[in-house]
Amino acid sequence: ELRDRAPQGPNSMADPDAASAALIAKLLQEENPYGEDVYGYQDDSDDEDYGRAKRKKKKKPVKPPKAPKPPKEPKPPKEPKAPKEPKRPREPTGDEEFTETGRRKRKDAGTARAKARPWDDQEEVKFREALVLYGRDWKKCAEHVGTRDARSFTSHAQKHFIKLCLQGKPLPAKVRETGDGYTLSGKPLDPNSSAAKQYGFKVDTSFTLPDGTRPAGLMTAEDAEEAEKARQAKVAETVGKLPVDFDGRFKVGTVLRKKFDEEVERDENADANQNVGAEDDDGAEKWIEGKVVDVDKDDADNPLPYSVEFDDGTFEDLAHEELEVWVEARIKHQKTKERRAWEEEMERKRSEREAEREAKLADKEQKAAEKAAEKEARQLAKVREARDRAAAEAAAAEPTEYARSRPRRETAAVGATTFRDAGGGTLELHPMRKFSPSPPGSGVPGAQPFKLTVSPAAMLVMDLHAHLCTNEVIGYLGGSWDPDTKSLTIERAFPGRGVASGMDVEMDPIAEVELKSQVEAQNMKVVGWYHSHPVFEPTPSGVDINNQLNYQRLFRDESVGVEPFVGFIVGPYDMRLPNQVSSVTAFCAQRLMKAGATEDIPFEVSYGLSDDKDVEPLTVGSMAAVVVQNKSTEGRVNPTELWRPFTTFENFKPGGGPCTKLAKLRASLCARLPAGMSKLREEEIMDGVAKTIQTSWGVDLGY
């Protein structure tokens, strides 16, 4: 249609834009016959060829500039402040030196520390007197000595306390008033500490309680090192970065916060603005802050290596443990609630790890105990096999006259009870029965057949002999028998040599002849025997009962129908002992008929002690002789070894500090000494035994 309406002509293609514009105008005219824009269309194009021109913006009239403000008058200058009055310097007292700023110098500043000199005999006497008089009041103790300061005195006291613990000696009464521990603070001595190991402590890391559990606090050297690292790591996490060197000492500049001691006289010239006597958060206690200004790294034995300067200008020497307490006090003062919550979470995780570790350790120890039981059973089988073989060889050989009369075990009769084996005895323990309460030797049926009295000298030698060996020991008891009064008296003990397997012991035949000769040489007769149960209760076994019956039959007095012969059992190292005193049992035996079979019954024998006033030189010599006799014995004890990490064990609760085997020996022997003996005499006898062990055995016990 557009082609049809387009203008035709020769010039129609000459201007195609004009033709298109004309056609569009024609179409618009047809649609709008009125010829005007009824739709109100307005051209807003910027092109001036279409619609009206763009409206120009009006320019704002230019305002005239404002007149400048007059300048302000300058303020008058401030008057200068009067200078502060300088601090009044401290007046010297004649023995003090001050720096340029008026602070007091340390007396040892700029001088090399003198080398430690040994304590002479006179100083040692005053040292012990000071401990008896003043206990742990180190300043008064140093004043009593006169030639030593408090630092030197405490260093010597720590060494002295460790040696006392190692030797089993008690602390002086005045020292025990501030703590029973063998340390400067009175706390129990840690046998794993470097100081304890330096002076001879040997820790038995295989120790277990009677119920099979491992006591808390007894650690191996590796566990102790791991625990120390964990403790240092915990402190480091608490403070962010603890200011310590690689050797564990606090660095110079470490800040602490110490509780203010009202008794300490502070410097009255101290600055009032310093933090002296500041109240704590609770408003009750007062504290003072300070910092470490010097660390003594030259003297490893110095108990007070840190020199601390407080905010009031005073100085004080502190130990590492004390400084650590006050450093942690300052840290605690600055903690936030978020920090405390974080520490509680860390502590909870640590407890979980510790519980897991203890569970693994308990499982490991249980497996080790099972293996040990299996090993012990195998060893017992070997011992029995060797014993049977030796008995067969002895039976094949022609017996001597002594061998014919020597007590022997009897084989079990037909129908014997199950606690007796084919060899005539068993290693099972048999509880002892008691005689009737009728007087001993009264002849009343069921009463004890004779009255028994034992001298302290015999008890001392028996107990000492049992302490010297981890295997069983054996010996004879010499004394007298009065058939008229039915009284048996034991005057002396004669240690012998035994053929021991670790589980039981028998007298060596040659030693038996020698002992009988020694008893007769002192106008006595053999009236008993003794042996030891090193680590278990002193209750007779089937072997012990058999030996006792053989001895009783050999020494029977037909005139009165009594067998005046008694057996003693000493239990020195039983872990269940309530204290350090060994358990000693006296017994005899009777063979009874029951249901057509024989049964061997042990009976406990009651005894009393003779009224001796002192220990005779002969007894002291016998004690020294038994020590020398056992210097090369198989199973000899190590006196510096730890017996158990506690002293008492009552109501299944351990108490007290660690106890060495030497300390156990001393305490047990002291209980055997005659009543009324002076402490000085007791210490003289015990020191004599310890010195003999040191010289004859070649071990260092600090004497």
Element layout with pairings:
Elements: H1 2-5, H2 16-31, H3 121-134, H4 138-145, H5 150-167, H6 173-176, H7 194-198, H8 221-239, E1 255-259, E2 276-279, E3 286-295, E4 306-310, E5 315-318, H9 320-333, H10 337-396, H11 401-405, E6 433-434, E7 451-454, H12 456-467, E8 474-482, E9 487-495, E10 498-500, E11 505-507, H13 509-521, E12 525-532, H14 542-554, E13 566-571, E14 583-594, E15 597-604, E16 608-609, H15 617-629, E17 642-644, E18 648-650, E19 653-655, E20 659-660, H16 661-672, H17 679-697
Parallel strand pairs: 6-15, 7-9, 7-16, 12-13
Antiparallel strand pairs: 1-3, 2-3, 3-4, 4-5, 8-9, 8-12, 10-11, 13-14, 14-15, 17-20, 18-19
Helix pairs in contact: 3-4, 4-5, 12-15, 12-16, 15-17
